[in-house]
Design a protein that fits this description.
Elements (H helix, E strand, L loop, with lengths): L7 E7 L8 E5 L4 E9 L3 E6 L6 E4 L3 E6 L11 E5 L4 E10 L2 E6 L3 E6 L3 E6 L15 E5 L4 E10 L2 E6 L2 E6 L3 E5 L13 E6 L4 E4 L3 E2 L3 E6 L2 E6 L3 E7 L3 E3 L7 E4 L10 E2 L8 E3 L2 E3 L2 E5 L2 E6 L6 E8 L8 E7 L2 E9 L8 E4 L5 E8 L8 E10 L1
Length: 385
């Protein structure tokens, strides 16, 4: 079964009246200010500053993100999540099949037909999708909550069940019994390379768009070839993707090493804390971050066209016994090392020139208390053009 390409939004139009006020605009240089939004398209953001009626035009290559002062989404750990190639996700439940598409019912944008060419798999809550094997596999794989595994082809969805074609048998699999589904795939999905936008919605879904326009009081989105309409209150944030900045928290590392001092390794989480919750540090919501537990080592191949790596880091939450060593490497060279990282405010922004380097590694090692409470957040790890 050949599958999985990105579900894209070809056009988004947001109309802002009452919801135009109170957006936080972040520019390429990471400066933030509260603005009233007039419009956004693939050329520029038009906005006005507080106490001023003069419109300001910000070229799109200087735009990083827009976010609203809204409650972050903490997913119910029983919620079903459809993962899409390139990093998008839809929160809700499958309701039926239409040809080669699985129709996913969401609270934010209604029923979305996602082609099985775009779907990577299904999980619950903030659980990550298991990485695909190195070799292609021809059948879908369902892991049940009791740890049993089924293989076959997902043929239909009906009456709260996935219908799995396994050989000559058609097996009903209740949705409530499913822990995860991996759809048949040919290879590891590459990160989205095109320049575009990510919309984070208030039901926990994230959808991708190559073009965005904002005007008026609603969101019009061309999702999977269908124009959809939603109120702007559904949109929590708009981030430019593969523009002036690439967030490492949106790119699965080439290598993840997790070495526990005792017991089982703690799974690295991207854009949530280690318990799957939104990250807050010093009363600041951190949307782009990586949560790790010592000992952790994450390595990425650096894409071309980026000049600088920048980030902050801090111990996650109230953990007075935490004590770790932080290292940042370019290829085999240590460019930053900090011992005795303990509870406290985020460390100052660290920046390093990455031109000419091939690999970037973020490492958290045991400190004086070995592994006790050693949870660290890499805050807004970014590659900057």
């Amino acid at each position: 079964m050949a599958k999985r390409r990105l579900l894209t939004i070809g056009l988004v139009v947001l109309a802002m009246a009452g919801h135009a006020v109170g957006w936080t605009l972040t520019t390429k240089d990471f400066r933030k200010e509260t603005v009233t939004l007039r419009s956004l398209d693939d050329a520029a953001v038009i906005y006005v500053r507080e106490g001023d009626d003069q419109p300001i035009r910000l070229p799109i290559d200087q735009f990083l993100s827009l976010s609203r002062d809204a409650s972050p989404v903490a997913l119910d750990q029983g919620a079903l999540v459809l993962h899409l190639a390139g990093g998008g996700r839809l929160v809700g439940e499958p309701v039926r099949m239409e040809g080669d598409s699985i129709v996913w019912r969401t609270r934010a944008i209604g029923d979305v037909p996602a082609s099985l060419r775009t779907a990577r798999g299904i999980t619950r809550g903030d659980q990550p999708l298991p990485p695909p094997p190195a070799d292609a596999f021809a059948q879908d794989r369902i892991r049940l909550r009791n740890s049993d595994t089924l293989e076959g082809i997902v043929a239909d969805v009906t009456d709260g069940q996935l219908m799995l074609q396994s050989g000559t048998d058609l097996l009903p699999v209740p949705l409530e019994s499913i822990a995860s589904v991996q759809f048949a795939t040919a290879a590891q999905q590459a990160p989205q390379q095109q320049r575009g936008f990510e919309l984070r919605l208030d039901d926990g879904s994230t959808v991708w768009s190559r073009l965005v326009q904002i005007e008026g009081d609603h969101v019009l989105a061309d999702v999977a070839g269908q124009t959809r309409r939603m109120t702007v209150s559904r949109v929590l944030a708009i981030d430019q993707v593969n523009g002036p900045v690439v967030w490492l928290s949106d790119r699965i590392p080439d290598q993840i090493e997790q070495t526990p001092f005792i017991g089982d390794p703690v799974t690295t989480r991207f854009n949530t804390d280690l318990d799957g919750r939104p990250i807050r540090i010093a009363d600041r919501l951190i949307a782009k971050a990586i949560a790790v537990h010592a000992r952790s080592r994450l390595t990425w191949t650096l894409p071309e066209g980026y000049a600088t790596f920048r980030c902050q880091y801090a111990i996650d939450g109230n953990r007075p016994l935490a004590n770790v060593v932080v290292r940042i490497r370019l290829d085999d060279r240590i460019v930053h090392e900090q011992e005795n990282v303990t509870i406290g405010p985020p460390r100052p922004v660290f920046e390093v020139d990455i031109r000419g380097a091939q690999k970037l590694t973020l490492e958290v090692d045991y400190g004086e208390t070995y592994h006790v409470q050693d949870r660290l957040i890499w805050i807004e790890p970014a590659l900057v053009r």
